[in-house]
Specification:
globular, single chain, membrane, cell membrane, about 85% helix, mainly alpha, 20 helices, transmembrane, transmembrane helix
């Protein structure tokens, strides 16, 4: 029986430290990324993105979903942990060798000889990460998010400073490659040293089998989901070239910063947290609805700011070399808003042990994305972004239908949970584009002044709409996360 008081305390602590991790380490990452974009041309980012399409796919298999299985299982024995550890190390070594073998194939596919050397270098990420993968999963299972925060912050800051120095020294794409390798090395060493778990030389096939049964659909889902989310990069790199891939990939990264950081904070904490109360369906459903609404309440206005301020942001910070990013950011902002609503869906599938269903829906998602991205990439980046937006609208409705069945709640309940936030978002965008946008264009303020005005406009209208039409205090929305945990 889970102690409710301890469960609440651990979950709140986990959210607190994960928020710090995301705000500080990811904030530093974003800041350093912007500085790197002002130094390194889009083509260099595109070259890295071409390799990352393949290395990222192999990363799906780096622990074969065994880390999630370790977290999900309520009671875990030492021999299980040891077996999972050495299985993960073996996978890391295998993936390193596999990417080395694929290096000439990647270079030939994109007709970019430099990709051979980049692929060889990035291949060592797998073996580096494998030595501490289990330690990090155990930290999550035990809700030790303070440790994760400390490790990530140190790795991000040191690797980022090194990358910045190399970029200023003219290393180009190699500054980005070394940044990734340095971060992986520092994280791996730190997790291994600071973790209480030290592996013993033990491996048992029978012990591993139940974990494989849990993780196999998860890995299949992850591999399919990966291509559904990266087919755009794959086809853009092939048909539109490294420079446009660099512009698109960085646009996507900027869009995902608030989405991934805000929803990612809660998702990473709530999976182990909800796993502890997986048998209490009412509590799981209540937390799911409240946290989804809280994520949308914060994420949607940030995406509105991004859409309305994209032009001024790019002109002020990045310059003319990145001007083609502006319409892409404006479209992807709405993609990010919709994706934030689906953040916790994956957790529900895992907590309820329905990885089989998650696998099937991801197959469908992948087919929609791959087909759409293939045809849209034959034209231009705007076509790709628009297809991405349309696909997300369709897939969100389908995913809600499945969540409805798993949690045994009505589809109308899911819709009512966020309907006002959706309407508010469209109102803010509409007035901002046709009203505020026209006024700012006429007044000809500086980019910085325009961004400040957009920031205040979105904030005031967003909060004002809730106060006027919802007829309830903002405190209710700001405390949703805390209330859900208490529940």
């Amino acid at each position: 029986m889970v102690d409710k008081g301890k469960h609440k305390k651990d979950t709140i602590s986990g959210i607190k430290w994960t928020v710090l991790d995301q705000v500080i380490s990811q904030g530093v990452t974003f800041g350093l990324g912007i500085l790197l974009m002002s130094i390194i041309v889009p083509r260099e980012f595109g070259l890295l993105g071409m390799v990352t399409v393949f290395s990222g796919f192999l990363s799906v298999f780096k622990d074969f979903g065994l880390g999630s299985s370790l977290i999900q299982k309520k009671e875990i024995e030492k021999k299980e942990i040891d077996t999972i550890y050495w299985t993960t190390v073996g996978l890391g070594l295998f993936l390193t060798i596999l990417l080395i073998v694929l290096s000439p194939v990647i270079a030939k596919y994109y007709d970019e000889p430099l990709l051979f050397e980049i692929s060889l270098s990035l291949s060592f990420l797998f073996i580096l990460q494998s030595f501490s993968s289990v330690q990090m999963s155990l930290a999550k299972k035990k809700m030790k998010f303070k440790l994760i925060f400390q490790v990530h912050t140190i790795a991000v800051v040191i690797s980022g400073v090194i990358a910045l120095f190399l970029a200023y020294s003219g290393f180009g794409v190699w500054a980005l490659v070394i940044q990734q390798i340095t971060a992986a090395f520092l994280s791996s060493v730190a997790f291994y040293i600071l973790s209480n778990y030290k592996p013993k030389l033990f491996w048992d096939k029978k012990t591993l089998k139940p974990h494989i049964n849990f993780s196999l659909p998860l890995v299949g889902m992850g591999s399919i989901n990966y291509w559904s989310r990266n087919a755009d990069n794959f086809f853009i790199g092939k048909f539109l070239g490294a420079e446009l891939l660099g512009i698109y990939s960085r646009s996507y990264s900027i869009m995902m910063l608030p989405v991934g950081r805000i929803s990612g904070v809660l998702s990473s904490v709530l999976f182990p947290s909800l796993s502890l109360i997986q048998d209490d369906s009412q509590r799981v459903t209540s937390i799911f609805l409240k946290i989804t609404r809280a994520i949308a309440f914060v994420t949607f206005p940030l995406m509105a700011m991004l859409a309305l301020g994209a032009k001024d942001f790019v002109n002020l910070i990045l310059g003319d070399e990145w001007s083609e990013m502006i319409p892409i950011l404006q479209i992807l902002a709405s993609v990010g808003a919709l994706q934030s609503l689906a953040t916790l869906n994956g957790n529900i599938f895992l907590v309820k042990n329905r990885t089989d269903l998650a696998f099937k829906i991801n197959m469908f998602n992948s087919a929609v994305y791959v087909i759409g991205f293939y045809f849209s990439s034959q034209y231009n980046l705007i076509s790709v972004a628009l297809i991405y937006l349309i696909s997300n609208v369709l897939l969100m409705l389908i995913n809600w239908y499945l969540v409805e069945n798993i949690l045994q709640i009505k589809f109308l309940t899911l819709t009512k949970n966020v309907w006002f936030i959706l309407v508010n978002y469209m109102v803010v965008l509409g007035i901002g584009h046709y009203g505020i946008g026209s006024i700012l264009k006429y007044l000809e303020f500086t980019n910085l002044i325009n961004l400040i005005i957009i920031l205040f406009y979105v904030t005031l209208l967003w909060l004002g709409m809730f106060i006027i039409f919802k007829k309830s205090s903002l405190e209710e929305y700001l405390k949703l996360i805390k209330e859900a945990v208490k529940k």
